[in-house]
């Protein structure tokens, strides 16, 4: 979470009974991988879309989940992009870095973004596109670099962009065609190249490439080109071409060697092109066989000649002549444009149009005269019988007459917005039987005067917003039975009656925002005729109820298909209520917005009429508390907005049973703690916003902090900006800087238990060490021997040796000098000695067990040193396990020294063997050594028959040290 202030520590007493943190939960927080949750410091997530727009960021956030497919970082203050910035976003397909201060991008920065398809770096401060800049972007199809300071393109900057189809590098400082060559040679699939607004002064095809390009669109407009030459067919697929600079003062030379080089261009924009008439003719002749659309805006010279030339092209059907300072349109300007079907004369200063100006355009279907200075509907438009679209927006028209549109029987779209029309007439739209879209917004209309009572049978969308209507009289829209959308917002409508909307049987959306409708207007039943209405917006009106008692007249009782209802945000701050049956009849309502209606109470039965409600906004009301029963009828609720409602607790959510809730916005309220039970009662929650609440920085919020960081399902919006308000010591500090490690369930009790357990463990360990040390030691080796025995038990390998000799290395001289010559040299036994026969590199334990189980007998040569040896102890333990487990006479004990019984007390296992096994004593055989060796020979010769008499070697079974040879 970046650098933080010093961790704050809670002071005073802890309310431990309310805290549910455990050691385990704290450990989980510590080991969460980056990005495992949805706690984002500066961004918000919508499904897989990360939105970090306008957050004043200086660096790329590193807490974006790795599942993000789009990332919007536009309008921030990022200056540099580094290699590590995007390594955690492997599936990102869309990256928007528009409008930052980026001046440096490190090499290989985008290397890991193999899924990226769109990259927007426009409006930054890049000056040099360096080598390896776009390495890794092998699937990028669209790159936007406009409005930077790019002057230099390195040779390999675009090397990886083999699938790039659209590049916008407009409004930069490119000066030479060589820069374009470095781009085009690495982008074989590039279809659209926009280079407008650079500093290119010449364009020579031989400097660009020696082969054909796949470009379909090339925009060179707003470059100060003074020399344009094409000597080879480098653009065989070009269909859209733009060239010209309104700010250029020097004329451009045009030299296209063959008329076939641009023969496929269908859309040509030469706005502002400063060129000799002869060159202009040559340009238009080059596209003579394919041109369909021509744009000549802001032309300086020869406009009439160019119009005549272009209108002579038989395929040309669309002509745009904007911003040419035209004041008068006469019949000569367009006399040759007989094939033109779409004509745009907008953004000029046209005040008058000759009556027969368009008579030469019999095929005209679309005419735009917007943003001129016409004071009335021109006569020239009245007889264009094939016209389907007429745009007269933003003129000075004050009145419209019945004959203005009466002959336009094919009109489908009519735009009269932003004029000064004050009234309509009943006959105004006669004969417009095909009109579908009518725009009359932002005029001065006060009266409709029956204009829509019997006409416009196919009208679907009508904008009457921004006028001065005060009332909707009965039957005003009676003829609009196909109307789907009606906008009346921003008028002064006060009066409605029960027949105001009669005839609008197919209306789906009605916008009445920002009018003066009151409760009385709703009581008239004006909306009962709108049986197919889906969306009704009554925001910013004057509807107010003084109490919550049931209404005798339901305002929306007939709107059973309504899905969205927005009721007023009050113009004035007077407390109001929402009647308990206000929503009666809205059985299919999905979204209800009652934001800022100044309601102080909602009855628990308010939503019992809307069982399908999925989205509820009751923000900005002085509710104080909410009842769980309020939400009982709306169990399908997915989004809840309760910001600025003055609620002091979220406990109502525990019993509200909102198991389908996915979105919760509860900003700017008065609660200070987010209880665990609240969050656990919302199992489907994906996004929550608790910003600007008065959080308490103590252990009551410890669980919430843990959940905020660790949750992998729910995104806590703007969590890093949550501020503490209590206690006073922590005011204005960030909630996430609060140290929760001290918030254990009961620190004193846990310390007591831990200390007591440690002391008891130490006491028990001391007791065993002092009194049972050797027993534990013997038990340990007994267990090891048991493991060795279990390992060898089932091997049943043939015996390799007659005996394994177990001895301490200090006794090796006796073994080598006395034992080995007698047993191997004279008697012929095959012995196993560790220094001679153990396998090098094999673990010692394995060598010991293999030697014991690979020999018929085991001879233990016992001395004081032998008893002290760890390895000798392991050998005798293993041999004894073989003795007791297999019940075979496999063990021969040979004492080199007399060892008193009391010295054997610590060696519990040895004492136990001596009570049951005979043994030989070398010191006691000093007078008769030959008897000693004979007895040892017979011991080795003894078989494994359990019925065989026990061979005692003339030594009785007695305590160690009492036997004799």
From TrEMBL:
Its main location: membrane. GO terms for molecular function: signaling receptor activity. GO terms for cellular component: plasma membrane. The chain crosses the membrane at residues 21-40. Keywords: Glycoprotein, Immunity, Inflammatory response, Innate immunity, Leucine-rich repeat, Membrane, Receptor, Repeat, Signal, Transmembrane, Transmembrane helix. It is a single-pass type I membrane protein. Residues 799-940 form the TIR domain. Belongs to the Toll-like receptor family. This is Toll-like receptor 22. It comes from Fundulus heteroclitus (Killifish). The lineage of its organism: Eukaryota, Metazoa, Chordata, Craniata, Vertebrata.
């Amino acid at each position: 979470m970046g650098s933080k202030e010093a961790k704050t520590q809670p002071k005073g007493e802890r309310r431990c009974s309310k805290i549910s943190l455990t050691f385990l939960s704290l450990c989980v927080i510590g080991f969460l991988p980056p990005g495992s949750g949805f706690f984002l410091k500066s961004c918000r997530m919508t499904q897989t879309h990360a939105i970090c727009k306008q957050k004043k960021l200086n660096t790329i956030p590193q807490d974006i989940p790795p599942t993000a497919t789009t990332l919007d970082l536009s309008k921030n203050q990022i200056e540099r992009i580094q290699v590590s910035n995007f390594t955690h976003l492997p599936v990102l397909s869309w990256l928007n870095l528009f409008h930052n201060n980026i001046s440096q991008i490190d090499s290989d920065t985008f290397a890991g973004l193999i899924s990226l398809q769109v990259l927007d770096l426009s409006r930054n401060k890049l000056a040099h596109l360096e080598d390896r800049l776009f390495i890794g972007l092998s699937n990028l199809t669209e790159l936007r670099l406009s409005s930077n300071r790019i002057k230099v393109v390195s040779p390999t900057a675009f090397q990886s962009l083999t699938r790039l189809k659209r590049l916008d590098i407009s409004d930069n400082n490119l000066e030479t065609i060589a820069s374009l060559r470095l781009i085009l040679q690495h982008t074989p699939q590039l279809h659209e190249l926009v280079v407008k607004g650079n500093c290119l002064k010449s364009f020579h095809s031989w400097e660009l490439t020696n082969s054909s390009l796949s470009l379909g669109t090339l925009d060179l407009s707003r470059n100060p080109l003074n020399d344009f030459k094409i000597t080879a067919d480098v653009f065989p697929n070009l269909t859209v071409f733009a060239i010209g600079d309104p700010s250029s003062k020097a004329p451009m030379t045009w030299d296209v060697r063959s008329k076939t080089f641009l023969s496929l261009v269908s859309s040509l924009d030469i706005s502002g092109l400063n060129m000799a008439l002869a060159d202009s003719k040559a340009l238009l002749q080059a596209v003579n066989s394919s041109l369909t659309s021509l744009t000549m805006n802001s032309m300086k010279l020869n406009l009439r000649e160019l119009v005549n030339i272009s209108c002579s092209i038989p395929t040309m059907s669309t002509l745009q002549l904007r911003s040419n300072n035209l004041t008068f349109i006469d019949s000569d300007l367009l006399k040759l444009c007989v094939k033109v079907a779409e004509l745009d004369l907008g953004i000029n200063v046209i005040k008058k149009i000759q009556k027969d100006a368009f008579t030469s355009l019999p095929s005209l279907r679309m005419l735009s005269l917007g943003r001129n200075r016409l004071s009335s509907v021109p006569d020239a438009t009245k007889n264009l019988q094939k016209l389907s679209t007429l745009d007269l927006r933003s003129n000075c028209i004050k009145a419209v007459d019945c004959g203005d549109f009466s002959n336009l029987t094919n009109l489908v779209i009519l735009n009269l917005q932003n004029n000064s029309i004050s009234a309509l007439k009943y006959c105004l739209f006669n004969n417009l039987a095909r009109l579908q879209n009518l725009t009359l917004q932002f005029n001065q209309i006060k009266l409709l005067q029956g204009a829509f009572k019997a006409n416009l049978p196919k009208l679907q969308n009508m904008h009457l917003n921004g006028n001065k209507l005060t009332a909707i009289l009965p039957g005003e829209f009676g003829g609009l039975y196909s109307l789907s959308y009606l906008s009346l917002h921003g008028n002064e409508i006060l009066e409605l009656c029960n027949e105001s909307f009669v005839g609008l049987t197919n209306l789906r959306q009605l916008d009445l925002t920002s009018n003066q409708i009151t409760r009385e207007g709703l009581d008239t039943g004006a909306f009962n005729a709108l049986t197919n209405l889906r969306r009704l917006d009554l925001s910013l009106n004057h509807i107010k109820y003084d109490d919550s008692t049931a209404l005798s007249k339901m305002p929306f009782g007939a709107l059973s298909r309504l899905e969205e209802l927005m009721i007023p945000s009050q113009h004035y701050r007077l407390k109001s209520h929402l009647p308990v049956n206000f929503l009666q009849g809205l059985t299919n309502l999905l979204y209800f917005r009652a934001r800022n209606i100044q309601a102080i109470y909602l009855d628990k039965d308010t939503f019992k009429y809307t069982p399908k409600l999925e989205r509820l906004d009751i923000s900005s009301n002085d509710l104080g508390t909410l009842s769980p029963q309020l939400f009982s009828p709306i169990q399908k609720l997915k989004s809840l907005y309760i910001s600025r409602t003055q609620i002091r607790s979220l406990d109502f959510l525990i019993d509200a049973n909102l198991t389908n809730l996915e979105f919760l916005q509860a900003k700017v309220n008065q609660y200070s703690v987010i209880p665990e039970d609240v969050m656990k009662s919302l199992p489907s929650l994906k996004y929550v916003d608790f910003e600007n609440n008065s959080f308490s920085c103590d252990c009551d919020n410890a669980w919430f902090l843990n959940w905020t960081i660790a949750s992998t399902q729910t995104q806590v919006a703007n969590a890093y900006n949550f501020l503490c308000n209590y206690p006073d010591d922590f005011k204005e500090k960030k909630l996430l800087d609060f140290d929760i490690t001290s918030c254990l369930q009961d620190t004193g009790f846990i310390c007591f238990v831990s200390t007591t357990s440690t002391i008891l463990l130490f006491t028990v360990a001391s007791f065993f060490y002092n009194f049972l040390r050797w027993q534990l030691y013997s038990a340990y080796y007994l267990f090891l021997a048991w493991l060795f025995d279990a390992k060898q038990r089932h091997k049943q390998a043939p015996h390799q040796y007659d005996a394994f000799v177990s001895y301490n290395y200090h006794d090796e001289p006796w073994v080598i000098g006395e034992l080995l010559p007698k047993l191997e040299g004279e008697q012929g036994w095959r012995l196993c000695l560790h220094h001679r026969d153990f396998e090098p590199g094999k673990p010692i334990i394995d060598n010991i067990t293999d030697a014991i189980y690979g020999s018929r007998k085991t001879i233990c040569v016992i001395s004081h040193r032998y008893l002290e040896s760890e390895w000798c102890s392991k050998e005798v333990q293993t041999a004894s396990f073989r003795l007791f487990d297999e019940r075979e006479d496999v063990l021969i004990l040979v004492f080199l020294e007399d060892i008193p019984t009391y010295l054997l007390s610590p060696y519990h296992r040895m004492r136990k063997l001596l009570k049951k096994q005979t043994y030989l004593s070398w010191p006691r055989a000093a007078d008769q050594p030959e008897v000693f060796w004979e007895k040892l020979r017979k011991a080795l010769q003894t078989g494994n028959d359990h019925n065989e008499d026990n061979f005692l070697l003339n030594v009785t079974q007695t305590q160690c040290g009492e036997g004799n040879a």
